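cache lookup: miss for this entity combination. No prior model stored, computing from scratch. Input as submitted by user K.M.:
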Amino acid sequence: MKPPTPEFEIERIRRILAGEKHLFHELIRPCERSVYFLLISLLRNEAEAEDAAQETAIKVYRNLKNFRGDAQFRTWVLSIARNEGLGRLRKAASRREDSLDAEIDEQTGDYTPAILTSWREVPHEALERKELGALLRQAVEGLPEIYRNVVLLRDIEEMNVRETATALGVTEGAVKVRLHRARAMLQKELAPRLGGFAPKRKGLFGWAR
Amino acid sequence: MRIDCTHVWEHISAYIDGEVDAALRAEIDRHLETCEICSAVLDSTRNVVVLVADDRVFELPVGFSERLHARLEKEMESVGPG
C-alpha cells in the first residue's frame, strides 16, 4: 500500500485534533502492517506483538499533537512502536540478545554466497505452495534481530533507507550494511533450497559449492 | 582493471537497489557478462529479495485489524486525542 501524502496526513491530524476523532482510524490504517512486523521482529511472539501494536496505536492517538511533521507520519509511528517493543523487552530483561547481536554487527563483512551455477528464478506463482512461504518466513525469522528489523522494514514494508534509519534509531550507513548482510544471509540460506520451486526444465540442477 | 568475485558480492545489495555509482556499475556489469557464478549469485539474491517482499509471505494475523480498531474505538470513546 502506498503511504498517503504528508499534506493529507497533516490535514487529517488537524481535523482529528479539532474534534473529528473517528478520522484517526483511517490515519493509522496504512501504518498497521509496518507496526506489527516491526514488533513481531522485536518481540518474536504474535500475541505480544499484537498487544504492543494496539498500545502503539493508542499512544499515537494520545500524543498526536506532538507530531511535528519533520518526519513522515509512519516513521514517527514506527519509532513509537519501537519504543513500545523495547520497553517490553527491557521489562522482560532480555537485553542480552541485543548485545550479542551488536557484536555480530562489528564483524567484517566477509561472506561466501551460496554458489550455484544454474540458478533459475522462482516465480511468484510458486507462493501458492504453502511450503515456500513457510521457508521464506523461517529464513527471515532466523536472522539475528538487527538484521531482521532492517529486512522487515526495507524489503518487506518497502520503506526507504532514511525512513528505516529513523524508525530504528540507527544511521543510514548502518541500515545499508545490515541490509546487505541480511540479504547475503538469506541468499546463502535460501538459494540452495529454492531450486525445488523453480519451473521444471530438462536436465539436473547443477548445485555446486 | 578487472574486479574479482568477492568485490562484486560486496556490492550486490547496493547494486540491486541501484545505489552504486555509474563507474562501479559498469565494472560490475562487465564482470557479470563473463562470470556465471556472480550472475547466479545476483539473480538468486534478487529473487530472494522479491519473494520475501510478497504480501503472501508475511501476513497479519486473522482479525488483527478489526481487534486493533475495536480497542482504539473504546479508547477514543473515553478520551480525546492529545
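stored under new cache key. Chain B has a mean pLDDT of 91.
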